[in-house]
Design a protein that fits this description.
Two copies of one chain form a homodimer.
Chain A (H helix, E strand, L loop, with lengths): L2 H17 L8 H11 L6 H12 L4 H23 L8 E2 L2 E2 L1 H5 L1 H19 L2 H7 L1 H15 L4 H11 L6 H27 L3 H28 L2 H4 L5 H4 L5 H5 L1 H18 L6 H16 L3
Antiparallel strand pairs in A: 1-2
């Protein structure tokens, strides 16, 4: 990882921590539950994409920081709710007890609700609005809302629930993933562009890159569920097979799935051709390659 | 109820319905679950307050409609999550099976998540931003986020959970209610003011009105839990006593609680003195009196 990217990641961590301060309020346990999941060493890929695309399109990443952090809050809330007993009922997340195991179901539910809400508080705070400009702030926050909602991430969850225990065709799997995980990754790139005031051509290229790595990301997830270990993954390996889920691996086979990841990664990198900033481009190339070759 | 207010309520219903259209999407059950709770004949007090205060401060209620509807979406999501087994575990809401009884816990959880998110999609849609202006749209949406989040409604829920089964002092009860139910009612008045471009004096008066009716509303809830019937309430009467909850009635006695509602209602009405529009004022007086004397 390059030095500049490491600095961005550091800034993301510091800001995330600052957005959920410890407190003596009567509801301090809520903030502890929020911090537990938000500050647990996630890869921060989504916020990084916001900042990188903001830079790539000539904007100032500083102004995009609240939006980058908001995206991570939305991602974190979705993981907390996903792990709940009425959903995937997962006891482990990133190698630790999942939120409801640590804090109880009621607090986990509310911590998720509060993180989703905090995302919008953060993007629409007076400081954030002044920094980014009201027009861009409103547009970027609206983009995240659309990506996270019924026609995006939550819709994808519902398709996933409806597909449980049955074989689904590749087309359904792809729609599900475009909603469930793809939408937030796409939103990351779009938000970076909006905050930088990017032109249409730049936005299109950013979306191509993000769509490609988003799909590749999901296919790698399916591959790792088959080839990874519970220890590496920080969550239970083999759970797709246990749940008789259709995945890219079951529908394409392991080899084809791996090849598709390679193809998508190349597509993503090619989409960056129109941009000039070699330094940011090389970081985004590295990111795409890292996501394709990761083992957790 | 006056004719103009009836028209506003009609517009709210139509808009709410339009924001969650029926669909053939793979996730159509999600939208059904959202519609089930959103379009179930609620009193629409919060959205009405947004529109009335927008008018009272010289704004156009039309431009505030998306924000009024968004507030009702947030209120509805909170009821769905509140009713879940890991929270209050209520089977009945407004005289019908609660959302998770009708759709299952997983869909109810996600319908709540999606309604919270839809609130921000709605306020920050391109049309809404153009109508209201980006600055006012961002500020109003930010106000709702703060009111609904960890330091507002969700924080209040957590205080409520932490107080379960134990006696709490009046001060704690008041902080809890200011967060849990007061914050959204206050936000309604504030959002109306923001969208109308109200001045500081107008905002202060609006907030005084809203704080007073918000607290009165909660005290009436506690009174009705003792004096109302399950049939009238559309939810189980006497549940506070069953749960050994501290309420205004247990802490003040029934008579003092009733007197406080009367005092608060007068305070609310007095706060409107600074405004000129007699028609809107009389509607807000009527609303305050209705809330104080309601039987459900």
């Amino acid at each position: 990882m390059q030095e500049r990217q490491r600095l961005l990641l550091q800034q993301i961590e510091q800001k995330l921590e600052a957005y959920v301060p410890k407190t003596n309020a009567l509801y301090h346990r809520l903030l502890e539950a929020m911090r537990y999941s938000l500050l647990d060493g996630g890869k921060r890929i989504r916020p990084l994409l916001v900042l990188e695309f903001c830079r790539l399109c000539g904007g100032e990443p500083q102004k995009a920081l609240p939006f980058a952090c908001a995206l991570e809050m939305v991602h974190t809330y979705s993981l907390i709710h996903d792990d709940l007993p009425c959903m995937d009922n997962d006891d482990i997340r990133r190698g630790r007890p999942s939120n409801h195991k640590a804090f109880g179901e009621d607090l986990a539910l509310l911590a998720g609700d509060a993180l989703l809400t905090l995302a919008f508080e953060t993007m629409l705070s007076p400081e954030s609005i002044i920094q980014a400009g009201a027009d861009r702030a409103a547009q970027a926050a609206g983009t995240l809302a659309c990506a996270a909602g019924a026609h995006g991430m939550v819709g994808g969850q519902v398709i996933d629930l409806a597909s449980e225990g049955q074989q689904v065709p590749l087309e359904t799997l792809q729609i599900m993933d475009e909603c469930k995980t793809g939408a937030l990754i796409l939103a990351a790139a779009e938000m970076g562009c909006i905050l930088a005031g990017a032109n249409e051509q730049q936005k299109q290229a950013a979306k191509q890159y993000a769509s490609a790595i988003g799909l590749a990301f999901q296919i790698v997830d399916d591959i790792l569920d088959v080839t990874g270990t519970t220890e590496d993954l920080g969550k239970k390996a083999g759970s797709d097979a246990d749940n008789q889920k259709s995945t890219y691996v079951t529908l394409m086979g392991l080899e084809k799935a791996r090849q598709t990841v390679q193809d998508l990664t190349k597509q993503a990198i090619r989409a960056l051709d129109i941009f000039d900033d070699q330094e940011v481009k090389s970081e985004l190339v590295e990111l795409a390659e890292f996501l394709a070759s990761r083992n957790r």
